[in-house]
Amino acid sequence: MERENRVSITVIRRLPKYYRYLGDLLRKGINRISSQELSKMTGFTASQIRQDLNNFGGFGQQGYGYNVEELHDQLGKILGLDRVYNTVIAGAGNLGQAVANYKGFQDAGFKILALFDKNPKLIGLKIRDIEIRDVDELEKYIKENNVEIGIITTPKESAQDVADIYSRSGIKGIWNFAPADLRVDDEMIVENVHLNESLFTLSYFLNNKSDYIRD
Ligand code: NAI
């Protein structure tokens, strides 16, 4: 999407939260919301919300607020959730299987076509209806099936090898769960997930209840 000004990563990281809350409102049949009400729900200030959304065009109207369905649709488009992404998982252990088992990713457009592993005991098994294949076939499979997103749930020692396979077979984005800093070329987008960091933040809040500024 072409825009005059580039949007900061912090704003982009808030968009999924707006999208989620708007989806909840839609399901409750609420059609209109003010930035003040959105502020109460999300914990961001009303002016922050207006500023964030203004980055993408004037969605709201003074005195009216936002049309929930329209804003939800627009944010969905901005987030690229109005299409399907063919996705594969490398590493079909505990976490890889859990990710494959969660239907919500597929419902959001991230279609998991196959899992790949090097353990012969796992190859041929199915998670829901998704087959676990031999990692030796990964490169060929990606090329033949127009796969855009590669998930990494291997041990960290294998993560770079998998990232290299993803890079040379045309994957555009990696969702990396392995605790490894991947080296990839500039065109590849890597999104790292660290559940530990969230858990350690919880631990901080448990131990320092009032010692932080909410933003
Ligand atoms: P696991 O040992 O159950 O599964 C790993 C799987 O990867 C195994 O089936 C193994 O055969 C396979 N594997 C190893 N090398 C491979 C290769 N070169 N190609 C394809 N498959 C390969 O481990 P678990 O518990 O599922 O964890 C997986 C990864 O996720 C680990 O790196 C772990 O540290 C990480 N993790 C990250 C979390 C996060 O918040 N980011 C949370 C939990 C785990």
From TrEMBL:
InterPro entries: CoA-bd (IPR003781), NAD(P)-bd_dom_sf (IPR036291), Rex_actinobacterial-type (IPR058236), Rex_DNA-bd_C_dom (IPR009718), Tscrpt_rep_Rex (IPR022876), WH-like_DNA-bd_sf (IPR036388), WH_DNA-bd_sf (IPR036390). GO terms for cellular component: cytoplasm. Residues 17-56 bind DNA. One of its GO terms (molecular function) is DNA-binding transcription factor activity. NAD(+) binds at G91, A92, G93, N94, L95, G96. NCBIfam families: PRK05472.1-3, PRK05472.1-4, PRK05472.2-2, PRK05472.2-3, PRK05472.2-4, PRK05472.2-5. Homodimer. This is Redox-sensing transcriptional repressor Rex. The lineage of its organism: Bacteria, Bacillati, Bacillota, Tissierellia, Tissierellales.
